[in-house]
Amino acid sequence: MSIKPLKIGNVTVEKPIIQGGMGVGISLGNLAGAVAKEGGIGMISSAQIGYLEPDFDKDPLAANLRAIKKEYDKARKIAPDGVIGFNIMVALKHYEEYVQAAAEAGADLIISGAGLPTELPKLTAGRGTMLAPIVSTGRSAGVILKFWDRKYNRVPDLLVIEGPKAGGHLGFTREQLAAYLEEETQDYDGEVREIIAVVREYEERYQKKIPVALAGGIENREQVQHAFALGADAVQVASRFVTTEECDADIRYKEAYLQAEEEDIVIVKSPVGMPGRAILNDFMKRVNAGEKIPHSPCHGCLRNCKPSEIPYCITDSLIHAAKGEVEEALLFCGAYAYKASKMETVKEVMDSLLL
């Protein structure tokens, strides 16, 4: 396979692989730095990034803002010349503060989804940070490109297309997921082509290249080749990096991937109603049975969360995951997580995808 470097603005990335952001505590400075060192783009997830800070329970915002700088510095020490960024969800409370902290820390790139990042250019004005919204449909691509064009007279530096086989929170309704994943007549490739067509319109208007990365279920070399054949300039890969030596997660989290079977990968419901994909474990079986899981005092993660009404706390459950307390955890994963059969290095994963 002939691999072309990824060019984003004035930056050239040797290997067109973006490591997807995984929170809480799964993709931090160590994993992001390792990917950047190997010539890809390493991404740190800002979601409750300060969960290990001593004051996290008392002041989660301060803990998270401090950890953004710490984890960026850790990644930069590993890859002094690499491309390192942050994945920051629009759905987060204090989204604005996290974006500004990431830009101030020195992030090369911010990728933002779980909502449309309409204000992202304003929040990073004057910083030189490259910006990439995540979209899942032609409609959402059209909305964000049109909005940035009209309000900021600019286009994204990169656009990430996240398909229905991604892990974590998904940008689809349950009905859309069922259509794409269960009905043979539905083909997400058509949506990808539609999104790229929208991007091409704005490339013409601005006379500049807007590279596109395809994400969601990218697990092997053949899927990477297919993404490039559709017109993508890069791929974003997350689950493959979980079972690496460099991943920041506890070994028991990684082992949950290694032990999972295909039937264990299910669509779940976030406490705030968003669908996601995770490993079916005892915790999720209890949730599915209607049990309301007691939780800690609110740590202020998602904007639309009502602590008195939620069936479980997503912060608590994802911290359990990062710490390896897997039977009390929400184990987010991609559609092909069950294919993980051994521990690898970041270099081995990247080579398997490109060589």
Q: Which descriptors would you attach to this protein?
A:
355 residues, 13 helices, 14 strands, alpha/beta, 8-stranded parallel beta sheet, 15% strand, 4-stranded antiparallel beta sheet
Question: What's the layout of helices and strands?
Answer:
Layout: E1 6-8, E2 11-13, E3 17-19, H1 29-37, E4 41-45, H2 60-78, E5 83-87, H3 95-105, E6 109-112, H4 120-123, E7 130-135, H5 138-152, E8 159-162, E9 168-169, H6 174-182, H7 188-206, E10 212-215, H8 221-230, E11 234-237, H9 239-242, H10 251-259, E12 265-269, E13 275-279, H11 282-288, H12 314-322, E14 331-332, H13 346-354
Parallel strand pairs: 3-11, 4-5, 5-6, 6-7, 7-8, 8-10, 10-11
Antiparallel strand pairs: 1-2, 9-13, 12-13, 13-14
- Kindly estimate the percentage of residues that lie in beta strands according to DSSP: 15-25%
In spatial order, strands of the major sheet run 3-11-10-8-7-6-5-4
- Note the overall shape: globular
| Distance, first to last CA | 7 Å
Q: What's the total number of strands? A: 14
Mean pLDDT: 94
Helix fraction? 25-40%
Estimated structural class: alpha/beta
> How would a textbook summarize the main sheet?
8 strands, parallel
What oligomeric state do the depicted chains represent?
Answer: single chain
Computed Rg = 19 Å
- Low-pLDDT parts are none
